[in-house]
């Protein structure tokens, strides 16, 4: 287990009683020495076992279980849990590999936010193009109306008609 103790990846062994049996140095540095303590209290800050506990699922199903979670330290982790058999073949604990994925999650969130901003910019550009097209379509007939009203205004001798033409112009 000496090699497990020195890796950058968090590794622990947890019993079916939810007590931490082993932690490598990476997890000790992050959470303190939790030997003999309840995993859900110290890792997750909970008062009772997690409903989604991958360790118990791994033991019950006799296969690797995986989950992404936010631990009590506020960081995002991917947790891989696998049954850890005793020499006699019985299984009463699981080994867990704990990967800090906080930076990846933050990058994904930034990318999502940028995609949303890009989509909004694209929509605003489309609206701008539509508004420019509508303005152009309105300006063409209005130019004719204004020009025609100027011509009529110059030729008109009726005061009421001239006032109406002034309003148009």
From TrEMBL:
This is PAS domain-containing sensor histidine kinase. Residues 63-113 form the PAC domain. It comes from candidate division TA06 bacterium. PANTHER family: PEROXIDE STRESS-ACTIVATED HISTIDINE KINASE MAK3 (PTHR43065:SF10), SENSOR HISTIDINE KINASE (PTHR43065). SUPFAM superfamilies: Homodimeric domain of signal transducing histidine kinase, PYP-like sensor domain (PAS domain). Keywords: ATP-binding, Kinase, Nucleotide-binding, Phosphoprotein, Transferase, Two-component regulatory system. Pfam families: HisKA, PAS_4. One of its GO terms (molecular function) is ATP binding.
């Amino acid at each position: 287990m000496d090699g497990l103790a020195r890796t950058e990846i968090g590794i622990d062994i947890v019993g079916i009683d939810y007590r931490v049996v082993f932690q490598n140095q990476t997890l000790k540095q992050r959470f303190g020495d939790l030997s003999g303590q309840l995993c859900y209290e110290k890792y997750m800050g909970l008062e009772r076992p997690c409903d989604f506990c991958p360790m118990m699922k791994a033991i019950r199903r006799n296969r690797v279980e995986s989950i992404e979670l936010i631990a009590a330290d506020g960081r995002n982790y991917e947790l891989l849990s696998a049954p850890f058999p005793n020499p006699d073949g019985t299984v009463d604990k699981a080994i867990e590999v704990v990967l800090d994925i906080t930076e990846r999650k933050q990058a994904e969130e930034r990318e999502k936010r940028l995609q949303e901003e890009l989509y909004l910019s694209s929509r605003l550009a489309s609206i701008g193009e539509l508004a420019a097209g509508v303005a152009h379509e309105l300006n063409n007939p209005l130019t004719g109306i204004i020009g025609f009203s100027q011509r009529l205004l110059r030729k008109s001798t009726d005061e009421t008609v001239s006032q109406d033409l002034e309003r148009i112009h």
